[in-house]
Amino acid sequence: MTDALSLSLILFLAFTGGSLGKRFGYPRVIGQLIICLLFGIPIIRNLVLTDATESIVHTMSQFGVILLLFLTGFEIDIQQMRKSAGAAIAIAFFAAIVPFGVGIVVGRLLGYSTTTSLILGMCLSVTAEGTKAALLTEMKMIKTRVGSIMLEAGILDDIFEVLFLTTVLFLSETTATESSATFPLRIAAFIVIIFLAFRFVPRLIGLIEKTHDGVGLFSGTIGIGMIIAIASEAAGLGSILGAFIAGLLMQKSFLNQDDRMQEEQFLHILAFALVIPFFFAYIGLHMQFDAIIETPITTLIILVAAIFGKIGGTLIAFPFTNLRFKQLLLIGWGMNSRGVMELVIAQIAFAHNLISQELYSIIVFVAVTTTVIFPFVIRHMVKQDEKIMN
């Protein structure tokens, strides 16, 4: 099967899954994610994908995450974020620290080494903005109070994820010494870039608005956003954080609100129709069902630890917020949704023999399972309490 045919089949399967999801009353992205898990079955993976196609899917999935966070920054209500900053900081802190500690304790009780337990704790503590952003956007809840806090806490959680990735690189004895020596300089350079961007990008967008049509404006917007994301990646902060900052910047740069709304619509179509299916296909590719079947008890223990660690950590932040218990519980389920970053940490650790194939497969299973659970939870809780997001 040619690469073009394989990629077309991925898009077709994602379209089919999305349509089935909508038919049964669930967001389209959930149908896409569930059907893309089929790529974790060896027979289907070998039948549909080649090595070259898998590489393309990986690249497209990375672009998909960046585009999603760019779109999130573009759409999110900045005024609501300012009102919710204190709650988001408390939630991000406890929702990262508690599952990190739980993961270490569970790892040691299961007989893993200190290093392996440390990495397990890192993987359980992260959260995924990509799938949450896709779901909240499709459900038109991204600008609600709870939706804003959930995404802001997830973005702040990126700080912990960067620290965890740095730790894994240090443990793997790659370029940790060089990275730690140059990290402050790269951070300073990124701050300068962001300062210059906030100063000059609005003028540049205004100029593009006046001199280009909708297509040219869209290309310019995407290009500038990608440059900021790349700068963030180069600084060691990750492209996700840079993409989100770029989206916030673009939101305030348009002179004409009709142009801004048109660009938002273009971004939404590009993300959900073309790019996001590859992000879900990439998640499906990392499923190793055989390893899960062979270690059911260990898998269940780690899954339960992951869920209770994240939700428990979020609920601990209750005294530092003015949210209702049900609202905080819903945010906890959102923070429990993992994905790409957990897979990145696990992949680096596995590649350097810091964790076994068995544990790697379990971590991937936990990432996918917690990601799939959240949409069903939010749909159920919103149905029970229509005002829960406000």
Q: Tell me the CATH architecture.
A: Up-down Bundle
Specify the structural class: mainly alpha
Radius of gyration: 20 Å
Unreliable stretches (pLDDT < 50, length at least 5) are: 174-178
What is the CATH class?
Answer: Mainly Alpha
> SSE order in H/E notation?
HHHHHHHHHHHHHHHHHH
CATH level 3 topology = Na+/H+ antiporter like fold
Give the amount of beta strand, in percent. under 5%
Count of discrete structural domains: 1
Q: Specify the oligomeric state.
A: single chain
Helix content: over 70%
Whole-Å distance between the termini? 49 Å
Average pLDDT score: 81
How many DSSP-defined strands?
0
Helical segment count:
18
Shape: globular
Largest sheet: none
Written account of the structure:
The chain has 390 residues and is mostly helical. The protein contains 18 helices and no strands. Helix 9 runs parallel beside helix 17 (340-351) and helix 15 (296-316) crosses helix 16.
What tags apply to this protein structure?
82% helix, 0% strand, 18 helices, single chain, 390 residues, mainly alpha, globular, Na+/H+ antiporter like fold
Reconstruct the topology from this structure.
Blueprint: H1 3-23, H2 28-36, H3 42-48, H4 51-75, H5 78-83, H6 85-109, H7 114-125, H8 129-138, H9 145-171, H10 176-211, H11 214-234, H12 239-251, H13 257-285, H14 289-294, H15 296-316, H16 325-336, H17 340-351, H18 357-384
Q: Can I get a quick summary?
A:
The chain is mainly alpha-helical. The chain is built from 18 helices and no strands.
